[in-house]
Amino acid sequence: MSYAGDKSPFLITPHYKIFIDEHCSEYDIACNNVTYTSVNKKTGVTLTLKGATINVGPSQDFRGYDFPNGEYLYRLIPSDKDSSRWELLVMKKGHVLLQESGTGG
To answer: What pLDDT digit, counting tens, does each position of 13-48 carry?
Structure first.
């Protein structure tokens, strides 16, 4: 799928445009069928991953998204500093390799 103008990005960071597609019912609290597509703003290279929402506690409060990619984990979480911003974290074995902050598109 081409994301050049098809829809607005979920998140725009300094280096990436990130699109999220949840393939679950709007009535589902948690979703284990989420697609992450990032577009490198400089090169145009895309990365598409499958993942799930992060939900915690008995009420399954939404906390973001996780997308595994081999030894790496791509995580999108709301910023704790500014409610209008989100954080992209790329981790390997619990260590953050990349962190970028941005806003919705």
So the answer is: 999 999 999 999 888 889 999 999 999 999 999 999
- Contacts of residue 14, Cβ cutoff 8 Å, sequence gap at least 6: 41, 100, 102
Q: Chain centroid to CA 20: how far?
A: 6
Query: If you compute the radius of gyration of the chain from its CA atoms, what whole number of angstroms results?
Result: 14
- The tokens describing 75, both together, are 């995580």
DSSP 59: T
Q: Is the dihedral of CA 62, 24, 73, 90 positive or negative?
A: negative
CB 39 within 8 A of CB 16: yes
- Does the reported pTM lie above 0.85? yes
